[in-house]
Amino acid sequence: MSDCYLPRLGGIEVQVADLVRSQSEAGHDVEVATATPGERIPGVHRIVARMPFDLPVHPRGGAHLLRLMTARRPDVVHVHTGAASPFAWMGVRAAVRAGLPVVVTVHSMWDPVTRTMYRGLDSLFGWTGWNIVGTTVSHAAARPIRAVTAGRVPVDVVSNGLDVSAWRPSGEAPREARDEVHIVAVGRLAPRKQPVRLLKLLLEARRRVPGEVPMRATLVGDGPARGSMERFLRSHGMQRWVSLPGRYSREQIRELLASADVFVAPAPRESFGIAALEARAAGVPVVARTQSGVADFVRPGKEGLLGRTFEELVRAVARLVRDRELREQIARHNRETELTRCTWPAVLDGFEHCYELAKTAAGMHGPKGPGAERG
């Protein structure tokens, strides 16, 4: 279950679709319930209402989902949520009422406002007392959730999945033969991702690099902050060395990473960072926040460099641009070291474990939850 699903394109949508494909290939019978409009596809139940801006919510979603779950009786209900996912949480409530095992995966970082909201919802509905099992995509994302649930809901960490072999470079990377240092970032150009701050970071790093070191940057993505970024580039004369090509397909991103020397993921509230993982799998050194989910697969001096503050990120980028030997050392490590925890077999094993926990909880305690019968 997910509010958002294909044909919408975003981190949760693509990750859930890849999970459905991987579980189906592993022999599971997987069906999807979503509030996202789109074409009719076998196994995808679109519970859609006419909403402004095609928002993926349904005012009577809970009743529809309860009927669907009662009719289908799945072995487990796996719900995927963002920071606020009303339709998905209707699904959690419906599944608990139906006495079904429930696993809830949170794909976002709960900030102070979100934590306050979920504490308030707990006081109204008592959701931390329902028989559910929680997962999230990184240790950084797990900490605020555990602070809210206070041990009443088990919260495991199951990484996002990646087909690592598809991102592995073939042969020796051509990036080492060039003098120019190419910096790449990939992500939605939304204010919460702080894309203008990324431009400030690049500008400051450029000032700290000797003029004889050629440097360019490609920032892939689209979104509401694009206009602000273009104005910043013009006002600081950065158009000559920073480009905003828009949204890229996965194939285009693979080609781009083949020419990248440094990948930058500066958002402090990045719950995981699938684009950074793709770059690491492609052999590119990654610069990211210490407090973000990227720190689960990037260690300082091994797969890249981490910084807690803006200043530390600037120093990290400038250091990698100046220090070719360090850059090549990290790139070589990333190309030669296999990722294991983020591969789809590892992810499927992690979810299988959570499914068994959820089945045990439902079997031991019965359908405890909103409106459930006791006895």
The 3D shape can be described as elongated
Count of strand segments: 12
Tell me which CATH architecture of the largest domain applies here: 3-Layer(aba) Sandwich
Q: What class would the helix/strand composition place it in?
A: alpha/beta
What is the domain total for the residues?
2
Rg on CA atoms, Å:
22 Å
Q: What's the rounded overall pLDDT mean?
A: 92
**Low-pLDDT residue intervals, each spanning 5 or more residues:** none
Our count of helices gives 13
What spatial order of strands do you see in the largest sheet?
Answer: 9-8-7-10-11-12
- Strand percentage, roughly? 5-15%
CATH class category of the largest domain:
Alpha Beta
User: What is the straight-line distance between the termini?
Assistant: 29 Å
Q: Which bin fits the share of residues in helices?
A: 40-55%
EC number: 2.4.-.-
Keywords: Glycosyltransferase, Transferase
GO molecular function: glycosyltransferase activity
Domain Glycosyltransferase subfamily 4-like N-terminal: 10-165
What does this structure look like?
This protein is of the alpha/beta class and 375 residues long. The longest helix has 22 residues, at 344-365. The chain folds into two domains: 11-161 and 344-365, Glycogen Phosphorylase B (Rossmann fold, 3-Layer(aba) Sandwich), CATH 3.40.50; 164-336, Glycogen Phosphorylase B (Rossmann fold, 3-Layer(aba) Sandwich). The protein has helices spanning 11-25, 61-72, 86-97, 112-125, 139-149, 164-167, 195-207, 226-235, 250-257, 274-281, 310-322, 324-336, 344-365, and strands at residues 32-34, 44-46, 77-81, 102-106, 132-136, 155-157, 181-186, 215-220, 242-246, 262-265, 286-289, 304-307. Helix content is 41%, strand content 14%. It has a six-stranded parallel beta sheet with strand order 9-8-7-10-11-12, sandwiched between helices. A four-stranded parallel beta sheet has the order 3-4-5-6, with helices on both faces. Its EC number is 2.4.-.-. One of its GO terms (molecular function) is glycosyltransferase activity.
